[in-house]
ABC-type polar-amino-acid transporter (Actinorugispora endophytica), 245 residues
Amino acid sequence: MTATPLVVLENVDKHFGELHVLRDINLSVNAGEVVVVIGPSGSGKSTLCRTINRLETIDTGRILLDGQPLPAEGRGLAKLRSDVGMVFQSFNLFAHKTVLQNITLGPIKVLGQSKAEANARGMELLERVRIAEQADKYPAQLSGGQQQRVAIARALAMNPKVILFDEPTSALDPEMVQEVLDVMTDLAREGMTMVVVTHEMGFARRAANRVVFMADGQIIEENTPDEFFTNPSSERARDFLSKIL
Ligand code: ADP
Ligand code: MG
């Protein structure tokens, strides 16, 4: 744990036109913490994640990474994108690059690693997500679960300070969900700072330090997983849980 929280959102508001999509969001994430964000569709979970690596701008409020306001442009923004990894529902791998090339591209171009160095580290990461034997294949030759594990390795290759996961298992066939959650659980145990939007309550119970429940652009409740699942304090959360559990 560092003295300063790694990620801080202070009084963050955002609109899409008339739609008030984030309402006075206050959230802080400590180094090594795993925060699971849950809530109904359209509640602003993806937008929240996207503001943290500045894929979306905010109207008012502040977002700090390591105590510093997010850079708006230039090299600072490139650095931010490597410090804040993101894993999406749709794996977003480069179709015409091999698995290993997908992982080494960022480290070579952005971090300035040599090809040999990036390849060595890339293979290590593929071992870590248990997929080293697929290194020379193309994404389309892999299952969805394997592709998502490549996407996780690709995020790790940038040595991020925090990784944001936006419904990483929602697009997967059911039999592939667990292999991805297992990799994420390993990362959590190893101390990676993670913000995870997911409806996988088993993962939340196992891996989360804190659950944040959002509805209508607001954080309605923040709680330990135990408390949240057994004794949610808000009516909205109780109602939501009764529908998904
Ligand atoms: P969630 O991830 O919780 O389902 P989102 O953050 O994706 O919610 O979306 C919150 C609201 O903002 C939704 O009503 C969605 O339709 C709207 N929205 C998301 N992205 C955009 C955009 N780029 N332009 C306009 N509206 C958007
Ligand atoms: Mg979403």
Residues 45-46, 166-167 surround magnesium ion (ligand 2) (CB under 6 Å).
